[in-house]
Amino acid sequence: QVQFVESGGGLVQPGGSLRLSCVASGFRFSAYHMNWYRQAPGKERELVASISFSGRITNYDDSVKDRFTISRDNAKNTVYLQMNSLKPEDTAVYYCNKAGGTNWGQGTQVTVSS
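Below the sequence we write its predicted C-alpha cells.
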C-alpha cells in the first residue's frame, strides 16, 4: 500500500525557514520522480517542486524558485523540502507524492505569520 508521511511543518515568522520531510512506503521509491505540492485554504492543490528519481534534476514553481530546495535520500525513502525566506503566501498544507500518484498523506501544515 502506497503511503506518505509528511512532517516538519509549523508556525514561522516571515523570512524564517522550515525543513519538511516525507517518508514514503509501499513502492520502489528510487524508481520514481517525487513531487511536493501545497494547498492553501480555498485554493486548489498546486505543484511546487519536483525531483528526478536520481536526484540530479529538480524543478520549481516560479513562486518558490531560489527560496525552496527539494532533495531526496533514496536509502531512507525520504524526500525533503528546505524552505527559506518564507512569506505569508507560502501558508498551506504541504504534501508529497510520487509522479502520477493518487494516494495522498495527511500533509503538514505550514503557517507563515508574524
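Strands lie at 3-7, 10-12, 18-25, 34-39, 46-51, 58-60, 68-73, 78-83, 92-98, 108-112.
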